[in-house]
Amino acid sequence: METNQLLALTEQFGNPIYVYDATKIQSQYHKLEQAFKNVNSLRINYAVKALSNLSVLKLLKQLGSGLDTVSIQEVQLGLMAGYSPEKIIYTPNGVSMEEIEEVAALGVQINIDNLSILEQFGTKHPKTPVCIRINPHVMAGGNSNISVGHIDSKFGISIHQMPHLLRIVSNTGMRINGIHMHTGSDILDIEVFLYAAEILFNTAIQFKNLEFIDFGSGFKVPYKADDIETDIEELGKKLTKRFNNFCTEYGSELTLCFEPGKFLVSQSGYFLAKVNVVKQTTSTVFAGVDSGFNHLIRPMLYNSYHHIQNISNPNGKERFYSVVGYICETDTFAGNRRITEITEGDILCFYNAGAYCFSMASNYNSRTRPAEVLWYENQGYLIRESETFDDIVRKQIVMDFDVLNAAV
After folding, report:
1. What SS3 class is residue 30?
2. 356 labelled as ligand-binding?
3. H-helix or E-strand containing 348?
4. What's the distance, CA 360 to chain centroid?
5. Please, are residues 257 and 215 in contact by the beta-carbon 8 Å criterion?
6. Which of 131, 247, 257, 328 is catalytic?
7. Average pLDDT for residues 35-62, to the nearest whole number?
8. For 134-185, how does the pLDDT look when each residue is reduced to its tens digit (9 = 90+)?
């Protein structure tokens, strides 16, 4: 998107604001499709947790996407957006048996990641097809908080527990129709991913009635100029060849599944915030914006990088700024960052704000959450209104202490 288009949207809808470019979402989806065009059966399940706005889900449905969900609420969002249950896979972690059964009753594909629940579910519902999430014990991901396939991870059933897993399947007579893994986000080395995939193939061969193998996702996108990213084309060539050979060995045409979230929506997103104050101290120039980690927590939580541009003065002289928010704790989006000269009232644009930005936003400090806008065919559409103070207090029940004290 052009900076003048983004500025026009702040004038139309206010700020701070999240903007998503539908064209980028579409191009990323087609890029993944193209990389695996030689797979006979490919299924892309968008990871709802990255960005769960209903309009974004409907856009992806138009492209042919399924959904990867991790909560019953995400399942309900998918159904509300028009997805059929069989196009949704549910991969929870640490949820109750009751929630899993409730989702299964909706006809959604269940993916189980621990032996206890597997045995309970298989005993009670042996005819319901189940996918199994394997932990391949492979470390992948750009940060320890988003690496989920290593030996100390809470996710998945360890490959070293295969004998126990197979006993449960045999004893319950349950039907296993899929095998799944997810090593982590921001995968840099496709050889590590392919190594984990080989472990998954070795696991899959032990099950005779599979319909699909789900390789998760975690593909890295660029966050700045010349940034490294997952080579999707190279991965497509190598994994397609191995997957097709495996299907021949297995004796059945399986579906290859991915569950990208960040890969599809991260680069589509722009977060726009106004500069409230430029503050010079003895060592630093701070640009304080009308936002904080209540709206974009990734730099504080993951030490993630978001490119920041002053779109009110894109061609100005560059200076060094620390861009900070208005939250009462340390709230730094960028330290000592080179940005064109900033004055109070300017609009700063945070790039790669499509994934895990609004979806992780909160009302911390009793602040409201911003609006969301979808840029579709050269026009901005409001797809979520900004919150008001009434939204924050709506569910609160205020006690009347005067009445209570009088009763005592």
Report:
1. helix
2. yes
3. strand 347-351
4. 10
5. yes
6. 328
7. 98
8. 998 885 554 444 444 445 668 899 999 999 999 999 999 999 999 999 876 6
For residue 184, what pLDDT is reported? 67
In this structure, the dihedral spanned by the alpha carbons of residues 376, 382, 383 and 387, taken in order and rounded to 10 degrees, is 150
State how far the alpha carbon of 21 is from the alpha carbons of 1, 201, 309, 353, 390, in Å: 7, 37, 17, 11, 30
* 203 contacts: CB under 8 Å, gap ≥ 6: 134, 159, 162, 179
Spatial contact of 119 and 146, defined as CB atoms under 8 Å apart = no
- 298 annotated to a ligand binding site: yes
The closest alpha carbon to 218, from 181, 256, 269, belongs to: 181
- CA 54 – CA 377 distance, rounded (Å): 18
The answer to whether 325 and 287 are in contact (CB under 8 A) is: no
Tokens of 322: 């620390």
One-letter amino acid of 100 = I
pLDDT(36) > 50:
yes
* 131 assigned to active site: no
Spatial neighbors of 76 by CB under 8 A, at least 6 apart, are none
20 among annotated binding-site residues = no
pLDDT at 147: 43
**Percent of the chain beyond pLDDT 90?**
89
Crossing angle of helices 162-172 and 115-124, in 10° steps, is 10
Is residue 407 very low, low, confident or very high in pLDDT (cuts 50, 70, 90)? Answer: confident
DSSP 3-state assignment of 331? coil
- Which tokens sit at 91? 């991969």
Secondary element (H or E) of residue 246: helix 232-250
Instruction: Say whether 323 sits in a helix, a strand or coil.
Output: strand
The full set of domains in the chain, from first to last, is: 91-260 (3.20.20.10), 266-393 (2.40.37.10)
Q: Outline where 251-338 has alpha helix (H).
A: 262-265, 298-302
The encoded tokens of residue 184 equal 């982590």
Q: Would you say 33 is a known binding-site residue? A: no
Q: pLDDT grade, residue 270 (50/70/90)?
A: very high
pLDDT digits (tens, 9 = 90+) for 69-123: 999 999 999 999 999 999 999 999 999 999 999 999 999 999 999 999 999 999 9
What amino acid is encoded at 142 in this protein?
A: G
Q: pLDDT value at position 318?
A: 97
Q: Are 359 and 49 in contact (CB under 8 A)?
A: yes
Kindly write down the DSSP assignment for every residue of 188-241, as one continuous string: --HHHHHHHHHHHHHHHTT-SS--EEE----B----STT-----HHHHHHHHHH
Instruction: Please give the model's pTM, rounded to 2 decimal places.
Output: 0.94
